[in-house]
Amino acid sequence: MTLRGNPWGVALAIGLSRIAFGFQLQTIATLGPDLARAYGLDYSALGTLVGIYMAAGIAVALPAGFAARRFGDYKLAVIGFSLMVLGSMVASLGSVEVIMAGRLMSGSGSVILTVLQGKIIADRFQGPNFTHVMGAIVGSFPIGLGLAQVVLPGVAGGFGVQTAFIVGAGVAVLAFVLLLLSWTEVAAAPVRSATWPSRREIWLVAITGLIWTAYNAGYHNYLAFLPSLMAGRGHSQAMTGVAMSLATWGNLPAILLGGIFATRFGGGKVFMAGTIATFVGVIGPAFADSPLLWTTLFGTVGSLHGGLIIEMGTLSAKPQNRAVAMGIFYTTYYVGAAMIPALCGYAADWAGDPIGALVCAALLSLLAIPLYVWQRRMAGG
């Protein structure tokens, strides 16, 4: 079976790019103690190196959508992968300033591919196949996070922290090569213009971007503050590792099941079940110190609806407008993602305990429900 023109090859390449995204994003967090020793960094500097990878999204997402419609998905995808690879290689050269520049490059590449992913898949898959493939792609991101936790400490210990960045480049190279081998243009070529989507489409994708922001407010802040909470409560590092694994490794099968359940029972029911499970899993530690229970709920039922949100955003615009529309979607998300961690941090400081951050994150995640109802009413579905 040849890869050229095979839509499943393209889908696999995009899925691998999400794994590379998670792997590269997690690199600083995983190697934090090693980097602190090697470069004399404090927590603020480490936090900056983590955040700059995502910060590129605010400036890059919308221009990437317009550029994709003007020059085509393939050219922008090549640029995205090239930046992911080159940025990690630059970061491997050392010095804090060089690492920061490399992170900004590779983060920009990840944002470009994230903006394109929904349109690329929607152009090749329809109906239930689109739901299932998109769910698998969204669910592949936590695999990258988990692989970084497993692989990078050994790499850094044996070969140095610079080599860990090269490994991140290698993961992106695998996805890049697969895309080059399998890509062909779809029959319906996109319109090469720089016009905006309709006002209705802009509203639909912007609201869906807010839903994605609310979903990730629970997801990312839970993973960020739960380890501190467990340490403060006297749990061992081994127990924390088990809890974090339960919160992430079940995401992919859960998201795939969410797509199947949505086809059978309806997306609205799956969305509500997933959102409520996320809320309960994130706020649960405030009421009972049972981390394995809460992380299991969070990592399974709480992940059912992740792929459905991306599907909503992608299908909210006409095919010729999807690249720009997803640029709007992700710009909305990245603006929120830049502010919410600080808000949760302030809540933790106010409460004098990391549980304040989790309560804040849980309440923000619950905002997804009224936003979903608003979006569905506006969409007429």
Outline of this structure?
This protein is mainly alpha-helical. The protein has helices at 7-30, 32-39, 43-71, 73-91, 96-122, 127-159, 161-182, 199-232, 237-248, 251-265, 267-283, 291-299, 306-314, 322-351, 355-366, 368-379.
Entry keywords:
globular, Growth Hormone, Chain: A, single chain, 381 residues, 2 domains
Give the secondary structure arrangement, pairings included:
Blueprint: H1 7-30, H2 32-39, H3 43-71, H4 73-91, H5 96-122, H6 127-159, H7 161-182, H8 199-232, H9 237-248, H10 251-265, H11 267-283, H12 291-299, H13 306-314, H14 322-351, H15 355-366, H16 368-379
Helix pairs in contact: 1-3, 1-5, 1-6, 1-7, 3-4, 3-5, 3-14, 4-5, 4-7, 5-14, 6-7, 6-10, 6-13, 8-9, 8-11, 8-13, 8-14, 8-15, 8-16, 9-12, 10-11, 11-12, 11-15, 14-15
Textual characterization of the structure:
- The structure is a single chain.
- With 381 residues, this protein is mostly helical.
- The chain folds into 2 domains: 1-183, Growth Hormone, Chain: A (Up-down Bundle), CATH 1.20.1250.20; 197-381, Growth Hormone, Chain: A (Up-down Bundle).
- It is built from 16 helices and no strands.
- The chain has helices spanning 7-30, 32-39, 43-71, 73-91, 96-122, 127-159, 161-182, 199-232, 237-248, 251-265, 267-283, 291-299, 306-314, 322-351, 355-366, 368-379.
- The termini are far apart.
- The mean pLDDT is 86.
The assigned structural class equals mainly alpha
Number of self-contained structural domains: 2
CATH class of the largest domain: Mainly Alpha
Overall shape: it is globular
- Give the second-level CATH assignment, the architecture of the largest domain: Up-down Bundle
